[in-house]
Amino acid sequence: MSKNTKNTDELINELCDGLEKNCGNFCVIRRFVPWAILAFSYVVGVVYFTGLRYDYADVMKDPIFLFEVGLALFVFFTAALSAAYLTIPDQGQKAWIKSIPLTLVGVFSLWSVIKAYTEGFIIPSMSKAAHCAERGFIIEIVPIAILIAVSTRGHTTQPVWLISMNVIAVVALGWVGLILTCSMDDMGHNYMFHLLPFALAGGVLSFFARKLFKW
Amino acid sequence: MTNNTSEHWTELATAAQAGDKRAYAELLGELAPYIRNVIIKSLKNQEEAEDIAQEVLISVHKSLHTYSSDRPFKPWLMSIINFRRTDFLRKYYSSRQDVTISSDASIIEENVTNMTTAYELKDIETALNKFSADQQRIFKMIKIEGYTAKEVSNEMGMKESAVKVSAHRTMKQLQGMLK
Questions:
Q1: pTM for this entry
Q2: C-alpha to C-alpha distance for A153 and A143, rounded to whole angstroms
Q3: How far are the Cα atoms of A53, A63, B54 from residue A60, in angstroms, in the given order?
Q4: Under a CB-based contact definition with an 8 Å cutoff, are residues A184 and A190 in contact?
Q5: Which residues of B touch A22 (CB under 8 A)?
Q6: How many A-B residue pairs are in contact by the CB < 8 A criterion?
Q7: Does the distance separating the beta carbons of B54 and A7 come in below 8 Å?
Q8: Mind listing the pLDDT tens digit for each residue in A144-158?
Q9: pLDDT tens, B46-72?
């Protein structure tokens, strides 16, 4: 018997001694829903205390505004659900679920290009950048911390995909929070201050995915 | 691997999740050679394959609670095997980048690209081959490998003074041959 084979037998004995009872009945949905509700509730709370935009009543009658908010919320929900499935090794045999938020992001991007073409894209003044960045940070920091904390307790075999889905979810939710509190709807301001900085920060975070989700 | 084996492992995993240590031991015992065989196909080194197999078993233990019997066992297992194998290969190839090779230009220029030096070394070697085997060995051990005369005399069973005289005479003759 080689040394390695003997070590494997000893390892198996040790693992058997460390077996926990009743470690089954794992349900991704049951784990995902409370945390998604918590993150969503937090953003609702921030929006409430910050105060809705002054023209809230008018924009809520605008179908385009409602379409964008609905699309972003759908991106949040499906990305967070994909992240939940990514916390288990075989993704619950639902690897295809990642394609849903990615498709919706594609739709959102295409919609943005069409809007930029029809409405024009003006580089915004940097005077409002700090205000939106500060509010965006407050809105998104807790949800991303929640999702990452939940994800680190998982056992992912695709850490980069996992952090990507977490970032997409939080950026989408944060974007909704920002456009509900900031009345500047021009394309330049909306995308350069409400979306781009946080997407870039998320991109940087993805470099630490393997360390973050090590198990 | 047949469907029966996969179903058998599903049953064992479900029993293990309920706390059945005997089933768990049987499951891990059957998984170990299977995992090893899968990894050996891409990693020929037996020891490294065994290390990765043990990593996979530990990962199976840590994530056993995430497996559900309504899903097939093999894809769950294979995802862990592929993850650990990729992890190992990533660390292996990044550690190879730590091997440093001197990029001192003067060393390269002197010993690799300097044709004069290259020819000189070749001449010395050719000239040395004309001496007896003992003379060559004494000269190389003292002048090239850095042994002391005492160490060489112990090695060759000669007097230390005889070793020193031999090395000196060989050096003188070489200098005359290479002028």
A1: 0.75
A2: 16
A3: 11, 8, 58
A4: yes
A5: 17-19
A6: 92
A7: yes
A8: 999 898 899 889 999
A9: 888 888 999 999 999 999 999 999 999
